[in-house]
Amino acid sequence: RWFTHFYVVSVLWNGFLLISLFRAEFLGESLPSWIQDMHHALGRDSQSKDTGNEHFSALLVLLLLWLHSCRRLAECLWTSVFSSGVIHIVQYCFGLGYYVAVGSTVLCQVPTNVRNGKKLSVQICWYHIIGVMVYIWASLHQHRCLAILANLRKSRSGKVVSLSHSVPFGDWFESISCPHYFAELLIYVSMAITLGMHNVTWWCVVMYVLFNQALAAILCHEFYQKNFSSYPKERKAFIPLVF
């Protein structure tokens, strides 16, 4: 339930970063000095040249990250039905810091004092289109799977009738136990594609999401197998047909 706090922080913080970068790109304003200091502290050379589409790619990824946070916040508030499970204080603090750091990571991929004078239509590349398409595809499936989980605890009228666990069916649940975790990974992969696929820093973020979500998926998969004797044996834990 307290994951909601993560998305509140993400919507506010990454929304602020998105507006700041947008104003710098299209209104000619400078990024706040403390952001430039942060770039310098993280080793980003403010005098480096834009390699072509860095600014637009970062702006697009920040937008995707912000939209993702908005959707997840809305799902936490109005879709998901949470049980009485708890979160460790260390995990909670780390989660808050993560959503601050991940947006800052995107912003630090571009020089702070260089404006790209190209027109927006010229800046759109094939990897932007593919990245956004994968993002939309994964986001739709993640929402469907979260709705399936929530509906297991609701009556047909939408009233919550139970907080117990049940075996989900439908959409990607037919192949894996935790498709919402797999979709989360795909969403971050889509952002790596949107950044041009060559950004090593963001691929490190993807690797973190991979191991984090895979571990959670394994634990959930083992829970299903332990508590439901008729659980479908053909289902994998995290990646369809693989793992």
From TrEMBL:
In its UniProt record, which GO terms are filed under biological process? dolichol-linked oligosaccharide biosynthetic process; polyprenol catabolic process
Main localisation: membrane
Keywords of this entry: Endoplasmic reticulum, Membrane, NADP, Oxidoreductase, Transmembrane, Transmembrane helix
Extract one GO cellular component term from the record.
endoplasmic reticulum membrane
Q: What is its EC number?
A: 1.3.1.22, 1.3.1.94
Question: Which pathway does it operate in?
Answer: Protein modification; protein glycosylation
Using the record's annotation, list all stretches that form the 3-oxo-5-alpha-steroid 4-dehydrogenase C-terminal domain.
126-243
**Per the record, what are the reactions this protein catalyses?**
17beta-hydroxy-5alpha-androstan-3-one + NADP(+) = testosterone + NADPH + H(+); androst-4-ene-3,17-dione + NADPH + H(+) = 5alpha-androstan-3,17-dione + NADP(+); a 3-oxo-5alpha-steroid + NADP(+) = a 3-oxo-Delta(4)-steroid + NADPH + H(+); a di-trans,poly-cis-dolichal + NADP(+) = a di-trans,poly-cis-polyprenal + NADPH + H(+)
Protein origin, superkingdom: Eukaryota
User: What membrane topology is annotated for this entry?
Assistant: Multi-pass membrane protein
Subcellular location field:
Endomembrane system; Endoplasmic reticulum membrane
A GO MF annotation of the entry reads: polyprenal reductase activity
Q: Which InterPro entries match?
A: 3-oxo-5_a-steroid_4-DH_C, Dfg10/SRD5A3
Enzyme's top EC category: oxidoreductase
- List where the protein spans the membrane: 6-24, 86-108, 120-138, 200-220
Do you know which PANTHER family this protein is assigned to?
DFG10 PROTEIN (PTHR14624), POLYPRENOL REDUCTASE (PTHR14624:SF0)
Q: Name the job this protein performs.
A: Plays a key role in early steps of protein N-linked glycosylation by being involved in the conversion of polyprenol into dolichol. Acts as a polyprenal reductase that mediates the reduction of polyprenal into dolichal in a NADP-dependent mechanism. Dolichols are required for the synthesis of dolichol-linked monosaccharides and the oligosaccharide precursor used for N-glycosylation. Also able to convert testosterone (T) into 5-alpha-dihydrotestosterone (DHT).
Can you say what this protein is called? Polyprenal reductase
